[in-house]
Amino acid sequence: MLMLLFLILIQKILIMFINTLKIEEYLSTLPQSILSGEEIQIPPDTIREIFRFTNLGKNDVFYHLGCGDGTSLSIAREEFNVKNAIGIDNSEKMINIAKKMINEKNISDIKVIEQDILKAEFNDASVILCWFMDPEILEKMIEKFKKLKNDTKIITIWAPLPGCVPQKVDFPYIMNETPFNETDDLKKQLMAVFDTECIGFVTAWEYAERYTKSIGRDNPENDRFLVIIQALTIWINAKNLGVACGDEIPDSIRSYIAILKEYFGIEVEHLLK
Fold first, then answer.
1. Of the candidates 237, 235, 205, 240, the residue with the CA atom closest to the CA atom of residue 223
2. Among candidates 27, 40, 32, 45, which has minimal Cα distance to 68?
3. Percent of the residues in the chain that have a pLDDT greater than 70, as a whole number
4. Which of 64, 129, 227, 241 has the smallest C-beta neighbourhood within 10 Å, fewest atoms?
5. Mean pLDDT of the chain
6. Is residue 152 a contact partner of residue 125, using CB atoms and an 8 Å limit?
7. Do residues 165 and 189 make contact, with C-beta atoms less than 8 angstroms apart?
8. Quick count: other Cβ atoms within 10 Å of Cβ 265?
9. SS3 of residue 269 by DSSP
10. What is the pLDDT of residue 94?
11. In whole angstroms, what is the distance from residue 159 CA to residue 14 CA?
12. What is the mean pLDDT of residues 54-62?
């Protein structure tokens, strides 16, 4: 699905040809399903890494919000022996694919539900995998998560829950546990995720590569474009929060800002405050 995202990006660039858009204007032209994460399936090996990171086991009731084709549920039951695995997704198509897989494998104690996650109930959960890039969804979900029993694990990818300092990080996998360690300090959040006193270009690039590798892609040669976008996002956020290493913009950052503008028609420099 990341290949789909990349192709959409290239298509949009070709249509715009020589026009330059600010990155937020550019992203607004993409399908909402891509931006929200609905069209992206987490690769099986990444799912296994997340489960090992979470210490998922036989006493857990596992929920995947936005479960897609149900691969995570199958792995949770068959390989990690969870007590129950429940998937919720608002796509009838994906739920039908998941049901077919469950029936063909004859897996017990597994269930999929076609439902909007904002209306879903998951009070019996001990571990929840929730990867949604839409900030409005996350803001609404955080209130539901706060009502869960103590020690419930919420696993996200790339970013922690809004207003929360994570209990455990193996980037890009991030764990928050109830009751949440809440904060309004974005700098504190950022430093908890990256576990360093300051963020330089090398750190931003390393973490961007980790993220790109973890979410998988159909065409690895397109990784460089994705890493550039992610690395610049990390570094610019760090700079604006005052936790970038040094006061000056590194030459490497300037070079990649120029590459995005010249070759892809995407302008990000205005994000620097």
1. 205
2. 40
3. 81
4. 241
5. 84
6. yes
7. yes
8. 18
9. helix
10. 92
11. 31
12. 97
Tell me if 196 sits within 8 A of 182, measured CB to CB: no
Give buried/exposed letters for 16-33 (b at 16+ CB in 10 A, else e). eeeeebebeebeeeeeee
Return the CATH fold of 44-185: Rossmann fold (3.40.50)
Would you mind telling me the total number of residues written for the chain in this entry? 273
Q: Are 216 and 226 in contact (CB under 8 A)?
A: no
H helix runs in the chain, sequence order: 2-16, 23-27, 32-36, 44-54, 71-78, 92-105, 135-145, 186-194, 201-215, 223-241, 251-264
pTM as predicted: 0.81
Which residues have a Cβ under 8 Å from the Cβ of 21 and sit 6 or more positions away? 29, 265, 266, 267
Side-chain half-sphere exposure of 12, counting CA atoms within 13 A: 19
Domain boundaries, the chain: 2-32+196-271, 44-185
- Residue 146 CA to residue 139 CA, distance in Å, equals 11
